[in-house]
Amino acid sequence: MVLSKSLLKDLVYQVNGAAIEVHKALGPGLLESVYHECLKHELALRNISFQSEMPVPVFYKGLEVETRLRCDLYVENMLVVELKAVDQVLPIHQAMLLTYMKLLHAPEGLMINFNVTHLFSEGQQTFVNEIFRTLPEF
After folding, report:
1. pLDDT over threshold 80, residue 137
2. Which burial class, exposed, middle or buried, applies to 127 when counting CB atoms under 10 A from its CB (0-12, 13-18, 19+)?
3. 15 in any annotated domain
4. Tens digits of per-residue pLDDT, 64-77?
5. 131 within some domain
6. pTM of the entire structure?
C-alpha cells in the first residue's frame, strides 16, 4: 500500500467517524481519558490499527533524549491524533501536535476536542506538513 493523500483522506474520514460516534454517545463534559478509552474501543471495532500513548522519540545531534512525550493515538503508522476535553484548544496544543508529526515523520494530524456541542464543526482540526505536500494524490 502506497502512502498517498487519498489514503490519508480516507483514514481521517474513518477516524472522524469513530470520534463522532463516541461524542454522539457520551456528549461533552467528561475527562479526556474517558474519550480516549472509548475512541480506542471504537477504532478497534472498526478494525483500524493504532498505538495508544505511544512514546515520541526525540533525537538531538545524535543523542536520544529521555522524554515522557506520548502521542495519544498513532493511527495506521501515519496519522497522529491528539485528544482534548477543554474549553478551548490553545496554540500550544496545536504546536505540540505539529511537533509530534515532525518527530514521528507523520504527514497528517488530527486535533479532536470532545468538549464541544458539535464535534465535526467545532471540535476537529486537521493539520498537514511538508511530508504531506510531497505525497502523490492517489
Report:
1. yes
2. middle
3. yes
4. 999 999 999 999 99
5. no
6. 0.95
